[in-house]
Amino acid sequence: MAIPVSMAMAATPTDSASRVWSMSSLKSALPSPSSFRLPTSSSRRPVTLRLPISSPSLPSFSGLSPVNPLLSIGLPDWQSFENGFKIVDGGGRVYAMRHGRRVPKLNRPPDQRKALLRGLTTQLLKHGRIKTTRARASAMRKFVDKMITLAKDGSLHKRRQALGYIYEKQIVHALFAEVPDRYGERNGGYTRIIRTLPRRGDNAPMAYIELV
Amino acid sequence: MAASVDPLVVGRVIGDVLDMFIPTATMSVYFGPKHITNGCEIKPSTTLNPPKVNISGHSDELYTLVMTDPDAPSPSEPSLREWVHWIVVDIPGGTNPSKGKEILPYMEPKPPVGIHRYIFVLFRQNSPVGLMVQQPLSRANFSTRMFAGHLDLGLPVATVYFNAQKEPASRRR
Fold first, then answer.
1. Name one Pfam family in it (chain A) (predicted).
2. Cβ neighbours of A192 in B, within 8 Å
């Protein structure tokens, strides 16, 4: 892991006072040299790196200020690569792209989104097959499966949890009555989505979602 | 992600009502001006009269047509699976069901709850059926597989299905 760091350090401009490293001293300073193999057979001569440190001969005490990990590699008490990069900021990272975000927002604020999904799962459990947009159908799957899993459990606590989510209590009672027979052997995947023709008014892609 | 692309498998027509088959005949069904494709949405108000069905094949072959609804009374609880709407036997190839013998008169789709699938199944007969079959005792709890086995029809040769749901009573704005 020190190799890419060394490449980065080689790209930085050298100052008036610079230290020249040789590959062997770098190897000895590394915590676990057995984790990777250096290309010693390919190049015999030591690779020289330039480290921009203003005073290389001072002792290693750097006080309480956070040490720049790129500078700390030259200091004698540098332990490992990861320590320098711990930044305490509460975990909030803001990226420009949506990479890895899996909650479908359905163009609605959170309270409306929850209400929409509750209504859709209620209607699906009532009618067995409904026609809606593809985004809503694929967003609903998780919650329909959750309700059927609650019904499979069957205890009073789960029944009350289902009653708190589904809008009509007759549907909850009917669900708890018939799910053990109908889905007893099936493990998950209680819905099926069939894509169909787009809606005429706004060309929205539509889908049927049905209980398996 | 559907494992198969065939709309009959995706719509679970093969599975709930039929077994996997290889279509060897073509059948085109028209309700008025609308041609039925697998999974299309049809309003029950346009299905009051029996559809026009054109069957391919030679005129010396005889075909049987069955129209059923596997989602009766509701797709989430199909306790009356299947509800049979129409049975016509001894249809000569290349013609339509009016030239055959109507065992069970046509009943129009009336889905009470949810979206129902209505399936037209075409079988090729080995021999004229004639009087071998009578009207089923009730339209409910019909089994197309057992009907085909009873008349020794084998696997179907053509199938098409459409979806229909109850129309709202008041006119949509």
1. Ribosomal_L17
2. 12
